[in-house]
């Protein structure tokens, strides 16, 4: 029942966004809303709401129809074909980044839970790491990858994208593992001690099952973060073939083909939903350990 209600509310939320888009396009000012504009000076002020003409805000049905039209005229395939192809490449790279992020985040979470001194010293740096702009961090990783490749160890460009993607993915996993492993009540820990259970036995039979309600939401968030990281990294380092590069290419044609950039935008949204939804498959296998997840 709860899962069905979530689907219904999610669908209503999407429909509400579409309705708001079309309502603003119909009722909104043609030149948008600009704050601080000076009379007689073109381009002055800050635009806080967009223009409503077809070049700035295409209709929803025009965006969808554009997906099934030729990519660039002539005999080129429909736009949806390169969108899907590019999205699958980015999804594969994001999956690698997600795996790396899960491994690194789980290791950090395990170390922080095992030794409080490590938590006190490491957790603030993990939090601070997420304040580093990804668009500045990506070229550094790409440069290091090129140096490694020149040194004789093969380092393809997609691997740099995966590492950058893992940078966003590891954070929620590290925090989720830490909070999850600390979740058991003290009385349960005392019970394991009365059984003369060691650290690894307690970890396997008590802490890991108790961590599931915290870990699954962290894994879903990490999956979505991995997609965001992969798309931004593709844009930052100029990797070809992914949906991030496609977004930039079609955005440059928006003045003449305003509906085209929304194709890869929809593809990116779908990637995030697919990535986060894939973790739900793992959740079905661990459903017996998910009590309390909604309030975790």
Identify the notable features of this structure and list them briefly.
mainly alpha; globular; 10 helices; two-stranded antiparallel sheet; single chain; 296 residues
Please characterize this protein's 3D structure.
The protein is mostly helical. Helix content is 70%, strand content 2%. The chain has helices at residues 2-27, 60-67, 80-114, 116-129, 134-150, 157-181, 186-194, 199-237, 243-251, 262-285, and strands at 33-35, 46-49. Strands 1-2 form a two-stranded antiparallel ribbon. Helix 5 crosses helix 8. The longest helix is centred in the last third of the chain and has 39 residues, at 199-237. The protein is globular. 30% of the residues are buried. The model has no long low-confidence stretch (mean pLDDT 83).
β-strand percent reads under 5%
Calculate Rg over CA atoms. 24 Å
Cα(first) to Cα(last) distance is: 20 Å
Can you count the beta strands? 2
**What's the assembly state of these chains?**
single chain
Estimate the helix proportion, in percent.
55-70%
| Discrete helix count | 10
Mean pLDDT across residues: 83
Question: Helix/strand/pairing class, anyone?
Answer: mainly alpha
State the strand order across the main sheet.
Answer: 1-2
The ordered H/E elements are HEEHHHHHHHHH
Using the alpha-carbon principal axes, give the shape: globular
Low-confidence stretches: none
Largest sheet: 2 strands, antiparallel
């Amino acid at each position: 029942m709860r899962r069905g209600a979530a689907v219904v509310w999610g669908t209503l939320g999407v429909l509400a966004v579409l309705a708001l888009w079309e309502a603003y396009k119909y009722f909104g000012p043609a030149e948008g809303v600009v704050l601080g504009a000076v009379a007689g000076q073109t381009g002055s002020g800050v635009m806080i709401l967009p223009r409503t003409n077809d070049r700035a805000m295409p209709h929803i049905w025009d965006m969808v129809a554009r997906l099934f039209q030729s990519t660039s005229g002539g005999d080129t395939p429909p736009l949806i074909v390169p969108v899907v192809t590019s999205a699958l490449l980015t999804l594969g790279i994001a999956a690698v980044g997600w795996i790396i992020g899960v491994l690194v985040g789980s290791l950090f979470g395990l170390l922080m839970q095992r030794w409080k001194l490590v938590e006190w010293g490491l957790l603030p740096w993990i939090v601070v790491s997420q304040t580093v702009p990804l668009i500045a961090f990506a070229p550094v990783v790409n440069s290091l990858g090129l140096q490694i490749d020149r040194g004789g160890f093969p380092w393809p460009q997609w691997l740099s994208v995966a590492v950058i993607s893992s940078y966003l993915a590891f954070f929620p996993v590290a925090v989720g593992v830490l909070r999850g492993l600390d979740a058991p009540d003290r009385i349960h820990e005392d019970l394991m001690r009365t059984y003369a259970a060691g650290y690894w036995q307690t970890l396997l039979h008590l802490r890991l099952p108790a961590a599931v309600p915290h870990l699954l939401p962290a894994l879903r968030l990490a999956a979505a973060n991995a997609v965001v990281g992969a798309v931004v990294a593709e844009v930052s380092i100029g990797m070809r073939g992914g949906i991030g590069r496609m977004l930039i290419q079609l955005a440059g044609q928006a003045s003449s083909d305003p509906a085209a950039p929304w194709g890869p935008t929809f593809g990116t949204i779908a990637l995030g939903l697919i990535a986060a939804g894939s973790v739900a498959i793992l959740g079905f296998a661990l459903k017996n350990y998910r009590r309390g997840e909604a309030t975790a």
